[in-house]
Amino acid sequence: MQEVYCDICGKTPVRAQIMVEGAKMLACGACMRSGKVLFRFDSESSAPHPPAPSSVETSEEIVDGCGKIIRAAREKMKLPLSVIAERIKERENFLNAIENERLAPTIEVAKKLEKELGIKLVEKTQSAVGGPSGSSPKSFTPPTLGDMVDPKKKKEK
Q1: Which residues contact 32 (CB under 8 A, 6 or more apart)?
Q2: What tens digit of pLDDT does each residue of 100-154 get?
Q3: Among 5, 73, 128, 133, which has the minimal tally of Cβ within 10 Å of its Cβ?
Q4: Is the dihedral of CA 17, 18, 23, 28 positive or negative?
Q5: 41: number of Cβ within 10 Å
């Protein structure tokens, strides 16, 4: 099993998953205080530990050509853009830019349009996270937030 490191300081063992300014991070016991604890891995009960974070990441993406899909569905329903904009509580100019593919919709707007027009705009994708499968866990240590900030350089200035 691959050893998991704290995203903040790089130490092990990881004790919790925390939320820091909207970002989910793995944290050791010392760094747990840096954010809101979402899940603790070291419970005092004799319950088994949850599995380590998966090496497959799932995300949502907007399909290609979504503007044409939206326009075709809207015209099939014979609805003007102003009616759709009012129903999903978005501006007509914004939806016009999406239909003409000058702007890409956010996931939230795409889901509203999916529901209103009965179309599919958001697809779930999976991507592998990590390096090559042949590498040993000791040869690579993932970068941490501490690696990005070097306090010694700031003090020398």
Answers
A1: 15, 16, 18
A2: 988 888 889 999 999 999 999 988 887 665 544 444 445 566 777 777 776 665 5
A3: 133
A4: negative
A5: 16
Regarding pTM above 0.90, the answer is: no
Full strand arrangement of the beta sheet holding 36-40: 23-27, 16-20, 36-40
H or E element at residue 60: strand 56-62
Query: DSSP label at 48?
Result: P
Decide: residue 83, CB within 10 A, 0-12 exposed, 13-18 middle, 19+ buried.
Answer: middle
The verdict on whether omega for the bond into residue 13 sits within 30 degrees of 0, i.e. cis, is yes
C-alpha distances (whole Å) from 58 to each of 94, 108, 111 are 28, 17, 17
Within this chain, do residues 120 and 66 fall inside the same structural domain, yes or no? yes
> Domain span at residue 145?
1-45+130-150
Amino acid sitting at position 44 = E
67 within domain boundaries: yes
What amino acid occupies position 136?
S
Q: How far apart are CA 12 and CA 3, in angstroms?
A: 8
